[in-house]
Write a sequence for this structure.
């Protein structure tokens, strides 16, 4: 990509973010508003759930306990033509992938 | 309008409270300080940095754009690119960046007094480390989650990419060696600690089998089972200690333990991940989060007094734990608690592939590092609530204060930090250890500090249990880093060897797996072995070397970020990464210079090698010392070469970055920005 295209993109980005002439106070509030929890994308964030249900689903998602269910949901949405992996195979694949790169720091 | 006035007043109050707390701990002389002031100062500084500096960087400099689709959305494949809840990403990111570094570094740096380390942890993080993590996360998100090495190659050229790769491999080797040394020193002649740490291996394997075969993928069940077994192992270690026969079975000196750790590292690198590494990581993550929260609650509840003075006389470079003056070694020693180059590897690669929206970059990049820095502050508190005499008795190697207890306490008391043999014996008995003298490496003193805080909060009678819980907690995630690091080192090496002969690059070809794992383990095993036979404790040499390497990796990450800022036409904001970079270049270069040129044998590697060689030649060494002297001399010279090599890598990439920037500014062709093009998000209304 050439420089000019990137600059054009950046300009678009600036206007899209609308941050050009805001004070830092306004910008901060803007970000705070945008990061309200109801903006979360994932299943964990359904508004109809109670606090405890949400906390539990976040714990499950954090630990990877519900990874297979999420994989099945993704699979039926995007690749419904093929058979999904069995739970055991999925889990092994996932771990192999995860530990193929840098995962832990000093 | 009313609301903004209220928030102005609230933030003014936070700023004033923070300023009071910082000046309180900075100006205090000669009295103990309530640890709550440290916590207050830290929380206020992070809050202000997060609310103002991070917002300003996100909106004015980076131009974070919530309407832009992230790689996780555009490339969603259900595996590694997955748009994820921001709290979940935060959890994964923090679990990945939080290692033993911020626990060990501040403990060692406490030899200068509490103030220098604390100030650097706070301001280094807010102005340097958090910015590095956040900017790197942003840059990688805009580039489809590319790694630091790839970004260095794309944005600066081939030289930058190679320098980043080689430095990463070396830092990994030094890191594993020094962490191995910390574990070995914590287990030395301690049947309780050794049996508990040994028990973590079959426990991890059991959990691995449970999650792999018995109940596949049931992570929470498996982890809960493992955590219960781990706690039983801590209590069981106390029982082992009481049994004369079993006691003997787990009572080892440093060298056999070092060999055991080396053998373990090799086994862990070649065993399937589901059996050992993955379950151990689950356990260590929960243990880490749980203990950090528990420690925070205990500090807030008990409000222990910090007894260490603000400064000690050791700022002149004569410290017993490691030699070297306050500048630059406090910065090198703290390392990960303020700025960690390693984080740039996590912030590029894994985390950006999970972000569902760019606006989460501030919370995950900046906020994640602020929390890590807070862990470092708690480690500093745990080290400095000990009586300074006790702190130095635990952390000073026998080579500095003498082998005999009476000799050591006389020497330490003569520095103005009174301590008695009875006091140390009583403490050792309370902690269930044979002795606490010369237990270098930071882990035992951190465990004593944590045990005394936990003990005063949750029951004095269980001090020994708390001590060994803390040791197990440190050991379990040190061993996770050791496993994971050896594996990554193996992959990197296979990647390089694959260029020489293609089959060596195949990650599943067993001869290549054995060969490359063997090379990596031998490399860190060598430094671990030397560290164990070194009468000065090994930490004295290895930790500064690790700090230098880590800070140089951070400098490389900041070089990439600075180059991208300049090439994006944001020259007037370039100081946000250029100033921390400038500072890192100064401290690492001066540290390397001190390490090779200092005539003080406790600082200068070459001076130490020459001194030992002269003593060996004149025949004044005891036969035991003479036997290990040639190895130590060789090692000190090798370390000097390594330090110079690190510095050269740094300067090569800094000059390369400056060259690219000047070419850009003078309108000459440079590698183009590799940012992926804009695409509107469909995930939600932006």
């Amino acid at each position: 990509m050439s420089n000019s295209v990137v600059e054009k993109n950046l300009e678009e980005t600036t206007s899209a973010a609308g941050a050009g002439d805001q004070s830092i106070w306004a910008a901060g509030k803007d970000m705070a508003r945008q990061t309200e929890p109801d903006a979360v994308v994932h299943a964990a964030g359904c508004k109809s759930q109670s606090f405890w249900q949400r906390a539990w689903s976040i714990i499950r998602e954090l630990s990877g306990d519900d990874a297979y269910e999420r994989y099945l949901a993704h699979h039926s949405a995007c690749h419904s033509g093929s058979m999904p992996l069995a739970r055991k195979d999925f889990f092994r694949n996932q771990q192999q992938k995860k530990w193929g790169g840098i995962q832990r720091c000093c | 309008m009313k609301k903004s006035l209220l928030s102005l007043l609230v933030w003014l109050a936070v700023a004033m409270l923070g300023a009071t707390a910082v000046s309180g701990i900075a100006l205090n002389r000669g009295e103990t300080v309530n640890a709550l002031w440290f916590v207050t100062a830290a929380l206020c500084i992070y809050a202000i940095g997060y609310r103002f500096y991070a917002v300003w960087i996100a909106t004015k400099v980076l131009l974070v754009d919530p309407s832009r689709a992230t790689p996780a959305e555009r490339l969603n494949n259900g595996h590694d690119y997955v748009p994820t809840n921001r709290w979940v990403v935060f959890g994964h990111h923090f679990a990945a960046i939080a290692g033993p570094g911020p626990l060990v570094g501040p403990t060692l740096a406490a030899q200068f007094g509490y103030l220098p380390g604390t100030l650097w942890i706070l301001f280094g993080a807010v102005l340097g480390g958090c910015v590095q993590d956040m900017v790197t996360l942003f840059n990688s998100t805009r580039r489809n989650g590319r790694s630091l090495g790839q970004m260095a190659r794309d944005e600066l050229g081939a030289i930058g990419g190679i320098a980043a790769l080689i430095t990463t491999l070396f830092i990994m080797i030094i890191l594993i060696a020094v962490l191995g040394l910390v574990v070995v020193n914590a287990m030395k002649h301690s049947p309780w600690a050794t049996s508990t740490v040994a028990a973590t291996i079959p426990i991890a394997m059991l959990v691995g089998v449970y999650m792999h075969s018995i109940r596949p993928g049931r992570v929470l069940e498996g982890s809960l089972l493992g955590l219960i077994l781990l706690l039983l192992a801590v209590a069981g270690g106390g029982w082992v200690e009481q049994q004369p026969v079993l006691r003997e079975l787990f009572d080892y000196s440093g060298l056999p333990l070092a060999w055991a750790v080396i053998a373990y590292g090799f086994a862990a690198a070649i065993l399937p991940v589901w059996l050992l590494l993955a379950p151990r990581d689950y356990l260590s993550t929960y243990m880490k989060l749980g203990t950090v929260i528990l420690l925070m609650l205990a500090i807030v509840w008990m409000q222990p007094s910090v007894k260490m003075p603000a400064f000690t006389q050791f700022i002149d470079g004569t410290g017993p734990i490691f030699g070297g003056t306050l500048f630059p070694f406090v910065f090198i020693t703290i390392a990960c608690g303020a700025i960690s180059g390693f984080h740039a590897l996590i912030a590029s690669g894994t985390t950006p592939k999970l972000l569902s929206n760019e606006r989460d970059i501030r919370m995950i990049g900046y906020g994640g590092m602020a929390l890590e820095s807070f862990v470092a502050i708690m480690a500093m508190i745990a080290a400095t609530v000990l009586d300074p005499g006790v702190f130095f008795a635990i952390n000073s190697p026998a080579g500095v204060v003498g082998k005999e207890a009476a000799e050591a306490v006389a020497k330490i008391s003569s520095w103005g930090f009174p301590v008695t043999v009875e006091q140390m014996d009583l403490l050792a008995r309370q902690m269930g250890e044979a002795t606490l003298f010369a237990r270098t490496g930071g882990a035992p003193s951190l465990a004593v500090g944590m045990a005394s805080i936990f003990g005063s909060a949750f029951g004095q009678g269980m001090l020994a249990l708390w001590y060994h819980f803390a040791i197990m907690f440190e050991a379990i995630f040190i061993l996770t880093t050791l496993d994971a690091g050896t594996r990554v080192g193996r992959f990197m090496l296979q990647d390089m060897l694959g260029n020489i002969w293609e089959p060596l690059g195949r990650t599943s070809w067993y001869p290549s797996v054995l060969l490359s794992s063997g090379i990596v383990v031998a490399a860190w095993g060598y430094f671990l072995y030397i560290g164990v036979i070194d009468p000065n404790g090994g930490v004295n040499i290895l930790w500064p070397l690790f700090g230098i390497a880590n800070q140089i990796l951070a400098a490389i990450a900041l070089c990439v970020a600075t180059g991208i800022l300049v090439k994006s036409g944001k020259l007037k904001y370039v100081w946000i990464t250029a100033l921390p970079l400038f500072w890192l270049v100064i401290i690492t270069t001066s540290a390397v210079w001190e390490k090779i040129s200092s005539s003080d044998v406790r600082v200068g590697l070459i001076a130490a090698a020459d001194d030992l060689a002269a003593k060996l030649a004149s025949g004044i060494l005891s036969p035991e010392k003479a036997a290990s002297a040639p190895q130590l001399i060789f090692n000190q010279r090798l370390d000097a070469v390594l330090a110079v090599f690190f510095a050269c890598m740094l300067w090569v990439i800094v000059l390369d970055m400056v060259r690219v920037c000047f070419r850009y500014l003078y309108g000459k062709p440079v590698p183009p920005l590799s940012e992926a093009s804009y695409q509107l998000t469909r995930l939600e209304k932006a």
